Every structure is written in C-alpha cells, then in structure tokens.
C-alpha cells in the first residue's frame, strides 16, 4: 500500500481530484488565463506541453498530482501536488502549485492548502510538510510564510529554470505540532469577509 493513496479532497466549492489525462484541455485553459507559462519562476506548462506535463506528473514515483477544480462545474482551475514523499519519516512536500489568473488572490489557494495540510497531518499522520520555491518567486514565498511555515534555508544552485538559468531554492516546513494553530488561522482567513 502506498503512503499517499488516490483521494479526492473537497471543501468550500473546491475539489482536488487525482490528475488524469482527461484534465489536459482544462489545464491548458487554466494556464492560458494569464499566460502563466511565461513566468520564469513557475512550473506551469506551455500549451503544447500540457500532455507531457500530465504524463510526467503521473509517472513520477514520489509525486501525487491533483487537478484543482470547481466542485460544481468540474472546471479545472489549476494544479497542485504532494511530492518528495518520504513515507519512512512521514514527510511530504506541497508544490507544483499554480492557478488560473482569475483564481489568484481568491479563496482557492487557502482552501487547497487547508485540504492538503489536513490530509497530510490528520489522515496520513505526517510529521512534517515542506515547500520549496524559486528564490525570485516572492509571491510564493509570501504565500508560504502567510501559512505559518518556517523558512528552513536556501539551497544554492539547485535547479535549472526553463530559461536556462540556475535557481536557488528556498525551503520551508511546517511541523505537526504547529498544524493546529495554522489550521485555525486558515479557517479564520476563509471565514472573514473579503473586501
């Protein structure tokens, strides 16, 4: 039995469903909303590479990818994954996360993080959940820090970007003992009026 089994996670009108080839057209449309593949600090696929993106996600042994969908309509809003899954130490990372431009700065990301963290800590019994991001992806760093994750450090010269430059990777983590407070904060953020 795998540590991370296929599962659909739902809350507040958002459904995280196991990524499948059937999501290709929806992912392509979500990426096109904002031409997200043009951002040099993200992993969003170019339209012509959407199928390969899905195939790579599905065959990567230590990754479990989700399509982020509107629960009512099934419209694909983006994608996110558990990755670098380490069952022996009960650790997963959350990443490969991106959303259509129209979903950014809405409840979508907060809801997804609540669903993923609750599954990781409450269902899988993880000790630690981690994140990594490009040193120039300041929006991602702020979003991770708003969750209450702690910055672990920077791995210098870690990964090649799509433009051929080499990035430094900023690492973050959240421990199981910190989850109750983070959960309360996420619920607070979701329930407060948006203005």
Automatic annotation (TrEMBL):
MF GO annotations: acyltransferase activity, transferring groups other than amino-acyl groups
Keyword list, A-Z: Transferase
Gene3D superfamilies given in the database record: 3.40.630.30
List, for all copies, the residue spans of the domain called N-acetyltransferase. Answer: 16-150
Its recorded name reads N-acetyltransferase
């Amino acid at each position: 039995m795998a540590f991370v089994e296929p599962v659909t996670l739902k809350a507040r009108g958002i459904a995280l469903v196991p990524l499948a080839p059937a999501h290709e057209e929806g992912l392509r449309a979500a990426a096109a909303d904002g031409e997200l593949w043009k951002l040099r600090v993200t992993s969003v696929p170019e339209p012509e590479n959407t199928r390969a993106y899905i195939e790579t996600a599905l065959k990567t042994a230590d990754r479990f990818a989700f399509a982020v969908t509107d629960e009512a309509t099934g419209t694909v809003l983006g994608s996110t994954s558990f990755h670098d899954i380490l069952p022996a130490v009960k650790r997963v990372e959350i990443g490969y996360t991106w959303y259509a431009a129209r979903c950014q700065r809405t409840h979508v990301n907060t809801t997804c993080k609540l669903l993923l963290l609750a599954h990781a800590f409450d269902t899988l019994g993880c000790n630690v959940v981690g994140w990594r991001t490009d040193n120039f992806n300041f929006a991602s760093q702020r979003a991770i820090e708003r969750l209450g994750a702690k910055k672990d450090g920077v791995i210098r010269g870690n990964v090649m970007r799509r433009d051929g430059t080499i990035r430094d990777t900023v690492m973050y983590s959240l421990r199981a003992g910190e989850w109750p407070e983070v959960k309360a904060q996420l619920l607070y953020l979701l329930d407060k009026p948006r203005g």
